[in-house]
Amino acid sequence: MAAKKKSKKAPKKTQPARKRGPVVAPESDAARIIAAIKKIPRGKVCTYGNVADVAGLPRRARLVGTVLRQTPASRGLPWFRVINASGRISFPQGSDAYARQRKHLENEGIDFVGGRVDLDRYGWPPRAKMLDELLWGPA
Question: What's the predicted TM-score (pTM) here?
């Protein structure tokens, strides 16, 4: 019987890790997101995903967070009206940013129950309107 030869596999080539620069939203996308955030009425909240949808950028919730981080506070943007999909503030509980956002929302009459905002009550746009807009486009 012939002995089996062990095949020598070539070692896997690894590519050097790519250095990622800061994520920067395209100007037009950022402008659309900022315009959507400015539409959120007083006393209402909007999720990151819904802001992206209103801006015409579905499935770009993370981009909304990036734009909010990069937008200077001097723009007067109601950033505090944007919360996550579970109805919670995204900042770590106990942080200064969390306390500041919660205070802004409570000053606008938004109630928290167990650290959450009732999206059916305070969410914008109303879910029925959101579905219509997704199906048929903006009014």
Answer: 0.74
